[in-house]
Amino acid sequence: MVIGQGGMRGMALDGRALRVTPNGAFVFGLGRDHGASATLSLPRGETRSLRVERRLWDVQHITGLPPAQVTPDDAALARIQQERTRLAAARAADSDRTDWLPPMAWPARGRISGVFGSQRVLNGQPRQPHYGLDVAGPVGTPISAAWAGRVTLAADFFFFGKLVVIDHGHGINTLYAHLSAIDVAEGAVVAQGAPIGAMGATGRVTGPHLHFSLSWYAVWMDPQPRLAG
């Protein structure tokens, strides 16, 4: 996630238009497998090439999961597809909120049990990379909003279990999954640090934890570098 200052209307990243605040601030994100460079388009036809550093990712082997969660049946697959559509709609929010400007607060404290970008092998079967930060703790541990924002999704999903998605503006949103309880409703506006739920073990998990994700529209990003000390 990159926050810039001094931008003007007409900016874009790799051809995608960027929102710019009246004060000239803008934000964009680069995904796990973006590639070695990106192009930032500036007003009056100027461009700037950005070099993207590659990272090495861990591989995690997880065993003991119920077979139905590793290889869902047809009914579960239909549900999963519907949930993906709902999640994509929530993450497509494009508001003019600027809640992403201050430092990001930790949504919960605890042992880091999973990191962004790691490749997971479930019961011996490779799966997509892990697009979040996992914080382990007891069931019921309070979960709070990392930034202020508007709740765009509060639901119970097959993989994520009980989850909340919050829009922070300019395409930036956060996701909180595997909750034991949800304490906010869709459409609610929450302050940074406000309680939104409780840590749990719902969905596909091996133990209680918070799966915390950060994204810019459909691009998953590593939240850990943005979290305040």
Would you write up a description of this structure?
The structure is a single chain. This protein is mainly beta and 229 residues long. It folds into 2 domains: 2-51, no CATH class; 59-226, Glucose Permease (Domain IIA) (Distorted Sandwich). Helix content is 10%, strand content 40%. It has 2 helices and 19 strands. The protein has helices spanning 67-70, 74-91, and strands at 2-4, 12-13, 16-17, 26-28, 37-41, 47-51, 59-62, 111-114, 119-122, 125-129, 133-136, 142-144, 149-157, 161-169, 172-182, 189-190, 195-199, 209-216, 219-221. The strands form 4 sheets. Strands 8, 11, 12, 13, 14, 15, 16, 17, 18 and 19 form a 10-stranded antiparallel sheet that branches. A 4-stranded antiparallel sheet has the order 3-2-5-6, with no helix packed on it. Strands 7-9-10 form a 3-stranded mixed sheet, with no helix packed on it. It is globular and about 55 Å long.
What is the second-level CATH architecture of the largest domain?
A: Distorted Sandwich
Cα distance, first to last residue?
17 Å
CATH fold descriptor of the largest domain: Glucose Permease (Domain IIA)
Averaged pLDDT: 91
The top level CATH class name of the largest domain: Mainly Beta
Radius of gyration: 18 Å
User: What's the number of helices?
Assistant: 2
Overall, the morphology is globular
Unreliable spans are none
Sheet-strand content, in percent, reads 35-45%
**What class would the helix/strand composition place it in?**
mainly beta
Considering the protein shown, what is the CATH homologous superfamily of the largest domain?
Answer: Glucose Permease (Domain IIA)
For the secondary structure, the number of strands is 19
